[in-house]
Write a structure and sequence with these properties.
The chain is α+β, with helices and mostly antiparallel strands. 12% of the residues lie in helices and 29% in strands. Strands 1-2-3-4-6-5 form a 6-stranded antiparallel beta sheet. Strands 22, 23, 24, 25 and 26 form a 5-stranded antiparallel beta sheet that branches. Strands 13-41-40-39 form a 4-stranded antiparallel beta sheet, with no helix packed on it. The two termini are 46 Å apart.
């Protein structure tokens, strides 16, 4: 039990110790549907008990892999054949949901006497616990919560699943953001053999049609979305009463009081809680509308974003959503062309035509696709991270709770399997305004811990960790939760000395991918960056074409990597310990793949090559084969044209390319098959790096002239220079990355240093 979080109840004589391939480590809680256990998958060589036997084992097998939440169904429910079948059907449908803001459903088994469901274990308080402990959320956190839950519902509904019981107890605030749990499972109780005319849900968060036992559609989840926001803003459910019938009568007849919601969310919540389901927006529309809302983020403090004495990461939350800016006009024109002869020697050594590494936007950015959303009529402000409540070593928070499953005909009362527990201590946050001016200055001395040429830099989604890939074959990590006092952490190495060429953080910040010149692509567990570790074997073994680029989709679970042979691979990494190839590797005709980048909604992959071309690929089906849907034209002219860097704007409509031909170009890819050049910013020398602030307003560019320049691209057809160019590096700047709050810019260079720049 040494690896079991404190507060998990030990197993007793009545608890199973082994279920199929899973070893149970402790009890998380009880509910009306059954009991939730903490467990791990048993190592194959231990000879674990047979499938779903539910029997106790005398000797507990060795275990491997991450902690899991295992929900074991009550025996009396397990005997109902219709329940078992529906439970399995709904659970398998839920397995197809892949989203950064949901807890993944990993396995289901109904063959034994103890049917069970296996989900990702999420360590963190429920929203209800957070509100009980700390009170209502401030406006900024409400907006981020609204975006996270809307995006979770978007993915759930896209998989053909309806949550049916969305409530504060089914939203966990993990160290990596809000996560929606228990989607679709409540429907298993809605069986004719158990009761007739039943309504599944929690009364105060039900939609009117649920109360009336009318047809249930995804619109019930939209109503619950609004109810959750009311609770988060007030600490009370939107409908209250001293009896269940009174609560349900209010659901049917009373218009909820939304006055405590910020004005940015009030009209959306009003539409979401319309009595007529036909009047409610879809989850996609909600998500798109919330992305038009921008509130200044808190600035992480030492208390919010540090490493504790026991080396446990206690960093601030990543942004729950990354809204795009409201476009504003810009009248200034781009600077005139300023061509300048330059050489571009490179460590790759394959063709002699291009060097340097490419930019992939590894921030957790907006998931917008540019689709029409619900009008929000909100001011133009900026996003920011979700401040994490300080974790107390108390009860793990996948415990059973008090979500009432009401049967109107006088049947049963059941409870959801994940709800209440220790809410943790108070959170800390301070307000701040991210930079939108492009005015930065050097922050301290250059970081020289890398010891070799730097080819890639990336910041974690919460802005607390910086990673740099270098020519000596290592990834160097720093704690930059206090940017003025960066602290070097143990570096990562696969043992390859040919050069680590690319690195990127997954959206949740717990996983890091690295690409090496020897062809290796490796995943790392960086949930505690001070003690990071490899995750399994390399996704791509050494010996193939050099792996030049990696990038995670900002939402979902896709990872892409490009190599020196023009091959691109895409994996579904929803289970980082066992990634699955999404389709087959495909060939990019642009030659060596210097850059890969996903659109904000994760549906399009852009690949850039040494011949100056950029391919656009449909990767919206995580199980399907990527399909080419467009290509940017190679620019005319002589000389090297390799595209070294890529970045999407938060609305997904504009793709930015940085090229060796001294140009930064902005492309309208609203229709990927017909891309349109919006702007061509000529630079004094080769462009190796482009990076965008999370709000998409400020573009930073850099390259062989060792200078960082800034552009306001609020109007992508008329970018204008802003701020003061930054100098200080003594060799080519290979990579740029902003922290999510926009206050800190990181640059990596062939001068063997990393520099931090601040707008504060």
């Amino acid at each position: 039990m040494s690896d079991v979080p404190a507060g998990v109840e030990p197993l007793d004589d009545f608890d199973p110790h082994q279920l199929g391939p899973y070893t149970l480590l402790g009890r998380l809680g009880h509910g009306g549907m059954g009991t939730v256990y903490l467990g791990r998958r048993a190592a194959a060589e231990t000879g674990a008990a047979g499938p779903a036997t539910g029997g106790n084992s005398v000797t507990e097998p060795a275990t491997v892999g991450p902690l899991l939440a295992i929900k074991v169904i009550r025996p009396e429910l397990a005997t109902v054949a219709e329940f078992r079948e529906r439970f399995a059907r709904e659970a398998r449908a839920a397995q197809s949901v892949h989203n950064a803001y949901t807890a993944a459903v990993l396995d289901v088994n109904i063959t034994g006497s103890r049917p069970y469901l296996v989900t990702e274990y999420v360590d963190g308080p429920t929203l209800s616990d957070r509100i009980r402990a700390n009170g209502p959320l401030p406006a900024a956190q409400l907006e981020w919560l609204a975006g996270a839950v809307a995006d979770a519902l978007r993915a759930i509904h896209a998989a053909g699943v309806i949550h049916r019981d969305l409530k504060p107890g089914n939203i966990l605030l993990s160290p990596f953001g809000a996560r929606v749990i228990d989607f679709g499972i409540a429907r298993a109780l809605d069986t004719t053999t158990m009761a007739t005319q039943s309504a599944i849900g929690t009364p105060a968060f039900m939609a009117p049609e649920q109360v009336l036992n009318e047809g249930v559609t995804s619109a019930v989840d939209i109503h619950a979305w609004g109810a959750v926001l009311v609770f988060a803003a007030t600490g009370n459910a939107p409908f209250v009463g001293d009896t269940i019938p009174k609560v349900m009568r209010q659901v049917l007849e009373v218009t909820p009081d939304l006055s405590r919601l910020p004005g940015t969310l009030r009209p959306l919540a009003a539409r979401a809680m319309a009595k007529d389901p036909a009047g409610r927006p879809t989850a996609a529309q909600l998500g798109d509308a919330v992305r038009q809302i921008h509130t200044p983020p808190p600035t992480p403090t030492a208390e919010m974003s540090t490493f504790s004495a026991d080396r446990t990461a206690t960093r601030a939350q990543p942004p729950v959503t990354g809204p795009p800016p409201t476009p504003r006009p810009a009248s200034a024109t781009a600077p005139p062309p300023a061509p300048h002869p330059a050489t571009h020697d490179r460590p790759r050594g394959d063709t002699g035509t291009s060097t340097g590494m490419s930019e992939v936007n590894t921030h957790l950015v907006d998931r917008g696709s540019g689709s029409q959303g619900v009008p929000a009529n909100v001011p133009d402000r900026d996003p920011g991270p979700w401040p994490r409540p300080r974790r107390r070593r108390g009860r793990a928070l996948l415990a059973a709770g008090a979500a009432v499953v009401l049967v109107l005909a006088g049947g049963i009362t059941a409870f959801a399997l994940q709800d209440s527990g220790d809410g943790g201590g108070p959170s800390t946050s301070v307000s701040g305004t991210p930079s939108s001016s492009g005015t930065f200055r050097a922050l301290g001395d250059p970081l020289t811990d890398v010891k070799d040429e730097v080819w890639w830099v990336a910041t974690s989604p919460d802005g607390g960790v910086l990673a740099a890939a270098s020519q000596n074959g290592t990834v160097t990590l720093w704690d930059i939760s206090q940017p003025a006092k960066p602290r070097v952490l143990p570096s990562l190495s696969t043992g390859d000395t040919t050069g680590m060429m690319a690195v990127g953080f997954a959206p949740g910040g717990r996983t890091l991918a690295s690409a090496s010149r020897n062809g290796t692509v490796q995943l790392w567990d960086v949930s505690n960056p001070a003690a990071a570790r490899r995750l399994g074997s390399p996704l791509v073994d050494a010996g193939g074409g050099a792996a030049w680029s990696v990038g995670f989709a900002p939402v979902g679970n896709l990872l892409a990597a490009g190599d020196g042979n023009g091959t691109v691979r895409v994996w579904n990494v929803s289970t980082p310990q066992a990634p699955v190839m999404a389709g087959q590797p495909f060939h990019f005709d642009g030659g060596q793949v210097w850059a890969v980048a996903f659109s904000p909604d994760g549906s399009i992959l852009a690949t850039a090559g040494q011949d100056g071309s950029v391919g656009l690929w449909d990767v919206s089906n995580p199980q399907g084969q990527p399909r080419e849907i467009g290509a940017l034209p190679v620019q005319s002219g002589v000389g090297t044209k390799a595209v070294e860097s890529l970045a999407f704007t938060p609305d997904g409509r504009t793709l930015i390319t940085g090229s060796i031909d001294h140009a930064v170009r902005l492309w309208d890819i609203s229709t990927p098959s017909v891309p349109r050049l919006l702007a061509d910013l000529r630079q004094p020398n080769q462009v190796w790096a482009v990076a965008l602030t999370l709000d998409g307003r400020i573009l930073a560019t850099a390259g062989a002239d060792r200078t960082i320049r800034f552009w306001d691209i609020s109007d992508p057809t008329a970018p204008r220079p802003v701020g003061t160019p930054l100098t200080g590096h003594t060799d080519t700047i290979t990579k740029l990355a902003f922290t999510p709050d926009g206050r800190t810019l990181v640059s990596g260079s062939r001068d063997k240093t990393v520099r931090l720049w601040t707008s504060g």
